[in-house]
Amino acid sequence: MDITHILDPLNEAQRQAVTSDAGNLLVLAGAGSGKTRVLVHRIAWLIATEGISPHSLLAVTFTNKAANEMRLRIEELLERPAGGMWVGTFHGLAHRLLRAHWKEAGLPEKFQILDADDQLRLVKRVHKSLDIDESRWSARQCQWFINEQKDEGLRSGSLESYGDEFTAVMLKVYAAYEQACERGGMVDFGELLLRSHELWLKSPALLGHYQQRFKHILVDEFQDTNAIQYAWLRVLAGGKAEVTAVGDDDQSIYGWRGARIENIQHFSRDFPGAETVRLEQNYRSTGNILKAANTLIANNEGRLGKELWTQDPEGEAISVYSAYNEQDEARFICSQIQGWIKDGNKANEAAILYRSNAQSRELEEALLRVGMPYRIYGGFRFYERQEIRNAMAYLRLVSSRDDDAAMERVINTPTRGIGNKTLESLRLLARQESLSLWRAASKAVTENLLPPRAMLNITAFMTLINELEEFARDKDLDELCDQAIQRSGLVKHYEKEGGEKAKIRKENLDELVSAAKVFTMEALDNDDESSITEVLAAFIDKAALDAGDTQAGAGEDAVQLMTLHSAKGLEFPTVFIAGLEEGLFPHQMSMDTQAGLEEERRLCYVGITRARQKLTLSHAESRRLHGEENLTRPSRFLSELPQNLLEEVRLQGRITRSTFFNDYAKNTYTGSEHGSIASSGDMADNESLNLGQRVRHPKFGEGIVLNYEGKGKNARVQINFDEVGGKWLVMSYARLEAI
DNA sequence: AGTCCCCCCATTTTT
DNA sequence: TGGGGGGACT
């Protein structure tokens, strides 16, 4: 078989990784070093030369996007479908296992997947039924606790509170939540992994079957695996399968949600005979950007070690802008992007990255002001929208009456006179008799347990669902979907609401019908035997496991705004990282432990390595946060960069500020003007000070001018001193010296 | 059932 | 500063 097309496009390190025949393999893939390429080519290599059948391969990633892309590229390279191969996310694969072996796993055949929103609702209900003080322990907190434990592979039964009140309350909720899930046949995200892991442990025959099957396991983004995922992998591999782990310890930024950087750090210990290959040649960024990244990350301890390099030129210096405040910062970035576009580049080649979402508003406003199109990543995705979730809940009920989460959601949405009181008695009945809500409702109606009015309304609702199912029998999924949103009254409900918002909701519902159509056609392509019931069930699972990354306006030519976390895996010709200030980045809540600080540093490393040609960093001397003005210090990360590669950006020229209190922030920024303290000659030493200018004070040392008020002899200036922080000084006494 | 108001809170996010 | 959620009121 001709294998040149597999090896030719690779560099030496990549080739070594692709062709490695050590039992296990760790590929330390630096940013922009061709990680996915290695993964894909290694798979092709195994199939082409080692005679491994796609059937014995399992490749696992974290996001659906990554999984889809991998499958696509494998098929492209192999020039045939890789059907027998298991490619998917951890959750997707675990789900597949549980669907196949639901009985052994102790689940009902039609178990439902709870997504984050369903989960929170359930926790809230559990919370209420246990009469827990909402003001002391929030449902969110409980949800977080439960997920944290599941990520660690721990059930309520295997935990102890040791007299700690918090833990005791959390465990009580956790245990009741587990029971509720059990009763309703519901499985949350963590449970998918936990349950399939347990399934293997308790059925050695089943485990043996999969161990027999999968000769090679390939894992992407290994540094992001959490405890349960790692355990899952180790059990499956069982010392027999060959494991290829690809990842970058320097890009581990999800420790806060259970990812364990130790998993990649200890790979060679836990997977004996592992070969380690480093991919250090970078095909993305300029030399200077890489040097900055390398220097920064060298401050972390316990790294596996890696140094990025490129054959490309040094490129431009890294710009650093010290803004007066967050508005100035936003205007600066905005004007730089305008300049970038004027130079013939496109808006979507520019990205603005920030540590926390709250920072986006100021940037948005600045972009809006100059009419620059922008797009914010993150936020609600398709299947997370309220109207879509409501419509899906009807479909879920059609598919499975026992889906309590769905029933709770839409039994009275839109309102049909089934109030809280009715619902409460149904819940009670359900709990007492260990029934699903639907069955409880059914019982209540047949046995006349409720006021006639309530029973009438419930009957109408149940009839609606039954009729929808009836209707679906000889129809396609999209037709069912359309009927569901019409007959449930959802469409009317949103129409009645009126306004722009409702219009968008209506459009989304239409979009759902189209999505159902596409899904049906794909299902028919793959397997023309599937009945509508099966297609419907598959559609519901897809909606739960894949929130739908199709972001509105994805293809638009707009400036890209996102958090540093969501920038991982992406790249842009020009990148701005805003808000490099102590307390913001590194964030206050993560800077007092070394582990926290190092993760922040890795986050910064991720940000820097997103840039291809040009990197611009900025910080503000003063930032409004939670409604109050705070003086800030530049981030330590700025001082950890090689100073010779940095170029401080100062805006040339100046405008003379009105001697009245003309708030600088309100001045229109043109990019060439600069706020300045009036130099109308009435200052003590007849010397003008500019906002943003560095000055020296005999006692306080050096600092930067932030603001002033008053004029003449009485003028007071605010200076942010490097050593002692912010101070207001009277001009005529301060003996300030401009630097 | 729906609206309004007040209080509280405030990284990062995928499945 | 502002958004979200919960409670109270109409």
* Global morphology: globular
Beta strand count: 21
Q: Number of DSSP helices?
A: 29
Mean pLDDT: 88
How far apart the termini lie comes to 71 Å
- Residue windows where pLDDT falls under 50 for at least 5 positions: 652-687
What would you call the structural class? alpha/beta
Q: From the alpha carbons, calculate the radius of gyration and give it in angstroms.
A: 30 Å
The percent range for strand residues is 15-25%
Helix content range: 40-55%
Description:
The protein is an alpha/beta fold. 45% of the residues lie in helices and 15% in strands. The protein has 29 helices and 21 strands. Strands 9, 10, 11, 12, 13, 14, 15 and 16 form an eight-stranded mixed sheet that branches. A hairpin with a 6-residue loop joins strand 18 and strand 19. Helix 6 packs across helix 8. The chain starts with a helix and ends with a strand. The relative contact order is 0.10. About 5% of the residues have low confidence. The protein binds a DNA duplex (15 and 10 nucleotides) through helix 5, helix 9 and helix 26.
Concise structural overview:
45% of the residues lie in helices and 15% in strands.
SSE order and pairing:
Layout: H1 4-7, H2 12-19, E1 24-29, H3 35-49, E2 57-61, H4 64-78, E3 86-89, H5 90-100, E4 112-114, H6 116-129, H7 139-151, H8 165-184, E5 186-188, H9 189-202, H10 204-213, E6 216-219, H11 227-237, E7 242-247, H12 261-265, H13 267-270, E8 274-279, H14 287-297, E9 318-325, H15 326-342, E10 350-354, H16 360-369, E11 374-376, H17 386-399, H18 404-410, H19 420-433, H20 437-446, H21 452-472, H22 477-487, H23 490-497, H24 499-526, H25 532-545, E12 559-563, H26 564-567, E13 572-577, H27 594-608, E14 611-625, E15 628-631, H28 636-639, E16 646-649, E17 694-697, E18 701-709, E19 716-721, E20 725-730, H29 731-734, E21 737-738
Parallel strand pairs: 1-7, 1-8, 2-3, 2-6, 4-5, 6-7, 9-14, 9-16, 10-12, 10-13, 11-12, 13-14
Antiparallel strand pairs: 14-15, 17-18, 17-21, 18-19, 19-20
Helix pairs in contact: 2-3, 3-4, 5-9, 6-7, 6-8, 7-8, 9-10, 9-11, 14-27, 15-16, 17-18, 17-21, 17-22, 17-24, 17-25, 19-20, 20-21, 21-22, 22-24, 23-24
The protein binds a DNA duplex (15 and 10 nucleotides) through residues 62-64, 89-92, 95, 113, 115-116, 134, 188-190, 192-193, 224, 253-254, 256-257, 355-358, 361, 378, 415, 417, 419, 544-547, 563-566, 584, 587-590, 599, 603, 624-628.
